[in-house]
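Item description
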Amino acid sequence: MAPRKPRRWRLRLAVYGSLVLLVFGCGWYTMFFPGKSFQGPLPPLNEQELRYRQRMERHLKVLAEQIGPRSTQEPETLEQAGYLQQQLEQMGYRVQPQEFQVDGVACRNLEVELPGTDEPDQIVVVGAHYDSVPGCPAANDNGTGVVALLALAEQFRRARPARTLRFVLFVNEEPPYFSTEAMGSFRYARRCRQRQENIVAMLSLETMGYYRDEPGTQQYPPPFSLFYPSRGNFIGFVGNLRSRSLVARVVGTFRRYGRIPSEAAALPEAISGVGWSDHWSFWQHGYPALMVTDTAPFRYPYYHTPQDTIDKVDLDRLARVVFGLQKVIEDLAGIRPQDVQS
C-alpha cells in the first residue's frame, strides 16, 4: 500500500508553527533580558544622584554654553575641549592623549586609567565622544555622555578595581567621520587591537538626557514598535549579537539599582541605529561593546540642530542613569562599593 500524503492543513500548520517558534526564539534572544524595568512614579533623588546632578550641570554649562559647537570645522572650539583634560587632571588622573590629524586639524582622544589589582590584563572601557556636528551646541548629543563620564571618573578616582578601568573621551564621532577610520574611537580601538589588549567590555555613553512621558514620543525602526514602549521615558542599552552576554550583564545590574525605566536589545548590526556611536568602532576590532542612550533621533526632536541646548536636558533623570551606571561599572571592573569616592 502506498503511503498516505499528508493533508495540506497539517503541512501548513507545521510550517506556521515553526515560523512562530523561530520568531519567538529570535525575539527572546535579542530583546528579553534579566531583571525588571523600573515602574511607577520616580522617587526623589537620593544623595548620590543629587551630587551627580550638580557635577553634570556645572560641566554641561561649560560645554554647551561657553564652548559651544566642537568639530574640525570649528577648530578653535574643538581645541577648547582641553577643558576636559584639565578637569580630569584636577581629579588626580594622568591624562594620556592620543593625538592625530584629520583634514589638517589636530585631534586627540583623552584616556585615563585605573590599573587593575587582580586581573590587570582585562580592561573595561567607558567612553563618550565630545565633538559635535557644526553649528550645534550639542548639549544632549553628546554633552550628556561627556558630563556623565566626567562625573563617573570623579566618583571612581580613588577606586582600586580588580580589572583595569579606563575612561576615554573620543573625537570625531559625528559626520563626516562617522563609520570611518577617522573616528577617534576607531583610531583608539585599532591601537588597542595592535597592542593585543584584552578589552572585555566597552560602554559608549551617547545622547542620554532627553525623556518624555507622553504616549507616542518614542519611535523605532520597524518592526520594534511592536515590542517596545511608546513613551520615551527610558534609558536604552543596545549591542550587537556578539555582545549579547555583555548587554545581559549590564542591564541586569542596572535594573537592580537604577531608579528609571530601562530597555535593552542585542541586534544585527545592519538594523538602523544599532551601531550609531563609538561602540561600533570596537565591534570592528572584535571587542564586546554596547551603547547607553536615550535613542537620539528616535526620540529627540532637536537632534543635530542649533536647538540642542541645555534646557532640553533632564538632569534629574540623567543623574538616575549615572547612578545605575556606577553600579554597572562596579560590577564589570570588580570594585567594592566601600572603595568608591562619595
In short: Residues 67 and 80 are 7 Å apart (CA to CA). DSSP finds nine helices and eight strands in the chain. Residues 8-31 form the longest helix (24 residues).
